[in-house]
Write a structure and sequence with these properties.
By secondary structure, the protein is of the alpha+beta class. It has helices at 36-47, 80-90; strands at 3-8, 17-23, 26-31, 50-51, 53-60, 66-71, 75-76, 93-94, 102-104, 115-117, 130-131, 134-135, 147-149. The protein is elongated and about 75 Å long. The protein binds iron/sulfur cluster.
Length: 150
């Protein structure tokens, strides 16, 4: 027997209402989408819903106190909270950090689910702390954190 699952596409602000016809696990047809991305989204949402995960983590000795990070692939929908907690358990990160730098590999044991920096953060240098022997980094206290999914 054919059944219908309904979704709202979140791939762009159009928010197309999607209909996915299926027989059990087998997808028959997707309709209501204005572009291919909507069909792909409906199929993904039906068979294996995932969410992109971005958050910020503390930076030690950086010019900025927070570093925006994201996962390289979307996280299983039911594991997003667990993934965010694991990121905050494993980090902060030590400055300097380069944009695109991999901070965690295979998050939650999933191959390819890496966490990368989405901006660069240079080492914090206080002019008065520079000495002929080098630079003494200042200490920073991590502030608030935020986590976003889409
Ligand atoms: S189907 Fe295409 S046009 Fe419609 S909301 Fe999704 S991405 Fe946007």
């Amino acid at each position: 027997m054919t059944e219908t699952a309904r979704f709202i596409c979140i791939r762009c602000p159009m928010g197309c209402p999607l209909r996915l016809e299926h027989e059990g696990e087998k997808i028959i047809e997707v309709s209501g989408n204005e572009c291919k991305r909507g069909a792909k989204y409906a199929r993904q949402e039906f068979s294996e819903p995932r969410r992109e995960l971005s958050t910020t983590v503390a930076v030690v000795n950086g010019r900025w106190e927070r570093l925006p990070v994201k996962t390289t692939i979307a996280v299983h929908k039911e594991r997003v909270l667990e993934a965010a907690r694991e990121i905050h358990r494993l980090l902060p990160v030590q400055a300097p950090v380069q944009i695109g730098q991999v901070l965690i590999r295979d998050l939650l044991g999933e191959p390819g689910l890496d966490v990368v920096a989405t901006r660069s953060v240079r080492l914090h240098i206080e002019p008065s702390e520079s000495t002929s022997e080098g630079v003494r980094p200042s200490s920073h206290t991590p502030k608030s954190r935020s986590t976003h999914t889409r």
